[in-house]
Amino acid sequence: MLLALGAMPSLGAEAAVDAVFDTEILRARGLDPALAEYFRGKPRFAEGRQQVTLLRNGEVLGEVEAEFDAQGQLCFSPALLEWASLQGPPPDEAEGVSVAPACYDFVGAWPQTQVQLNPNLNRVALLVPTAAILPQPQEEIQLESGGVGGMLNYDLSASSYQGLGSGSRSLSLDTEAGVNVGDWIVRSRQFYYSNNGQGQFSDLGAYAQRSFVSQRARLQLGVINVDSPLFAAGQLLGAQWTPESGLEQGGPGARVEGIANSVARVEVRQAGVLIHVAQVPAGPFSFDNLRLNNRYVDLEVTVAESDGGERRFTVPAASLGLDAAAPLGYSLAMGRLRDYADDGEEPLLLTGSGSWALGARAQGTLGALSTSQYQALGLGADIGLSADTSLSVRGVSSHAREEGVFGHQSNWAMSTRMSEAMSASLSASFQSEGYRDLGEATAVYGRGQLSEARKRRTRAQYSASLGWSHQRAGSFRLSYSSSRSFDGHVSSRWLGSWGRSFKWMSLNLNVENGRNSFDGRRYQAWYLNFSLPLEKRRINSTVRSSGGDTSLNTSVSETVNEYWGYQLSAEQSRRGTGVSANVNVQPRYASARLGMGQNYAGRHFSAGLSGGLAFHRDGVTASPAQIQGSFGVLSTGKVSGVRVNTPGGAVWTDAGGRAVIPSLTAYDVSRLEVDVKSLPRTVELKNGYKELKVSRGAVRHVEFDVFQTRRVLLEVKDGMGQPLSAGGSVLTAENRFVTTVVEGGKVFLDNAEPGQTLTVTTANGNRCQLDFALPETVDEQVFYEQLDAVCRAEA
User: Fold this and answer.
1) Within its chain, how far is the Cα of 28 from the centroid?
2) What is the pTM of this model?
3) Distance of alpha carbon 647 from alpha carbon 184, whole angstroms
4) Which run of H or of E encompasses 607?
5) What is the pLDDT of residues 623-662, one digit of tens each?
6) Which intervals hold domain PapC-like C-terminal (predicted)?
7) Are strands 123-127 and 299-305 parallel, antiparallel or unpaired?
8) Is 194 exposed, middle or buried (0-12, 13-18, 19+ CB in 10 A)?
9) Residues 6+ apart with CB under 8 A from 551
C-alpha cells in the first residue's frame, strides 16, 4: 500500500498534481476508499507533532519537533522560527497583540521561500531568502546572566608504598567552595597534603569577583593573585581591576611534561607553594593548563618514584607562555601582601598597568609597582611580525630599598609557524645581579643565607621547541630549556618525541636528557611504545631505559562502557618483575580511580575520588566533573538516568531528573545535547538540543521538555471473534487518519492515550469502534505493548 500510494514526488511548497484513485479497485483489494482522499494530493506528514530533521538553505540544523496541520503542511510556530533563526512577525502584524500567532504565514511574508517535505525521510528542508535569516550579533553580546547557586569541588588522593625496610604514605585533598549570586562569583580554595604523617595545609585564597561586560573588565576582592602583565607580584589581601580575559583571545595555560621511570607521584610547586600533585604511570606524562600563582615565577617539579628514588627539574618561567599578549585595557591592584614580610609585617602594595593597540599588529604595555621596600617599572610590546610569526618583549627595572640595589630584567619570546607542517618557538630571560623581584626583595633571609641566596640567583634562562609533522614520517617534537646562575651553576633539559600511526597500530618514542637543577647530576631516559587497538581493548607494549636499566612492559586496557575501564600490566627488567592493575570508574555522579601493583622493590597502592556538588533552588545535585565559574542545572522532568553531553563532559540525571552542567563557556556558545539512546522507551523529547550564551558567573536552569508516549500493538477481533480484515482506516473522533489495519487484524498506535476514541472504517463502508484497556503501569523496557482489542460495530 505504501508503495502504491507513496510513489509520487514530494513537491514541498509547490503545487502538486492531484492523483486520482479508482475507489472500486481499492475496495476490491480490501483497502478503505477513504484512504484515496487522504493521499490524493501527495505524501504528507500526519497531523500533529512530529520529530523531524530540519535543514535551512542546505545546513542541517538538527532534530526538532515540528507541527503539521490537517493537510500535512508545516506550521511555522514561534519555536520553529527561533530554532531556525528566522524572522518572526513584528508586533503590529500579530493581529494587534503582543503574542505571536500559533502558525505564522512565513511563506506569505517571504514568497521566495520553498518548503520541501519528505515524510519518508522524516525531513523538512527550507530554502529561504537570506534577508529572512536573523543576523548573528557581532559587536553586541547577547548574554544570559544572573542566577543563584552554590558549589563544592573535591579531589581526594591517597597513595602508599611499602618496600624493603622502607615505606611511605601520602594523602592530598584539594577543595574549592563557593556561591554565585547575580553574576558575583565567591570562591575559597584550600589544599591539604600529608606525607608520612607530616601534614601541610595551604590556603590558596578566598575572593569575590564580578565581570562588567560594558567595561570589558573584571573586579576581584579578597585574597587574590595579582594578575599583572609585567610583574611577579604574588598574593595579596585587597582589590583588583583587570581586563576581562574571557572577552579576549586568551592563550593556553602552563604545560609541564616529563618521563616517570615507574609509577610515581609528581609534585609541582611555584615559589614553594604546592599547586598540583598527581599519581602517574610509568612513561611520559604531561599536565596542561595548570593554574599558576604567577606566570613569571619558575615551576619546581619533583618526580617521586615508587622505588623511593626522587628526581627534580625546573620549568623556566620563560617557557610559561610569555608570547601570549596581555589583554587590552587597564589593570589596577591594591592591598597588603601575604606571607612575605619579616617580623609579621605585611607591606601595602599598589600596582597598575595598561595595554594599548599600536596599529593593526602591535600593542604596548606600561606599568609600575610600589611597596615601602620595593619599586619597579615595566615596559612591554607584542608585535605580529607576519600572519604566522609573533614577538613578545618585556623589560622591568627594579629598586630593592633594603639592599640598596638597582637592576633590570628582560624577557623575549617568539613563535612562528613556518608551514602547515612545521612550527617553532624561542624564549629567553636575562637579569642583572642587582635585579630583584618582589618576592626576593621582601622574603625572609637569615644573614648567613643572604650571600648564598644571591649566588644561586638565576642569570639567564633559555628555551626552544620545534615541531614537524609529515603524513608518512609521523610527528616530531624537540624542546630544550637551560638555566644559568650567577655562581656558574648550569641546569639543562632536552625532551624529544616522535609518533606515527599506521593502519593497525601506532608507535611513539620519547627521549629525555638533562642535568638536575638541584644537585647537578645528569639523567637520561627513553621510552618506546607500541599500541595495537582491538575494538574496545588496546594492547600496549613499551621498552623503557633509565639509569642504566632497561625494562619491558606489556599492558591491556579496555573501556568496558561509559562508566568504567581498566588496565592490567606486567613488567620485566634486570632487577625483577612487576605487575599492576588500574581501574577508572565514573558511577554517574563522581569519578573514582584505583591502582595497585607489586615489583622487585615493593608494593604500591593508590586511590582517588573527585567531583562536585551543586546547591540550587531544587536541592543538591552531584557532578562527576568539577564545577567551574559559570554552571547550570538541567532537568528532564522526573526521568532519571538520561545522558546529556555538555561543555564540561557527559552527565546523567539523578532520581529527580536533574543533572549539573559543570561548565558553561563564558561569552561563547555552550551546547547541550541529550543522548536519545539513554531515554526510556516510553519517553520522547520535544527538543533534545539547546544552545546557551552566558556571562561569567551565571547560573542557568535548563528544562528539556519530555512527554510520555505509549506505543501499542493491538490484535483486533470483530464481534464474531475473528481477526479484523486488513485495509481498514483507523480514525480519531475528529475523523483524523491515524493508521491502517494490517494482516491478522493488527493495529499499531504510536501514541495511545487512556480514554481515546478510535473508529475503524472497512472497505465496504462499515464502521466499528475499537475497545481496549490500557494498563495503569507502563513497562519502560519494551518498545511497545501488545494488547487485545475488540472492534464493536456502531449502532
Assistant:
1) 62
2) 0.66
3) 21
4) strand 602-616
5) 999 999 999 999 988 888 899 988 888 899 999 999 999 9
6) 713-776
7) unpaired
8) middle
9) 543, 544, 545, 571, 572, 573, 574
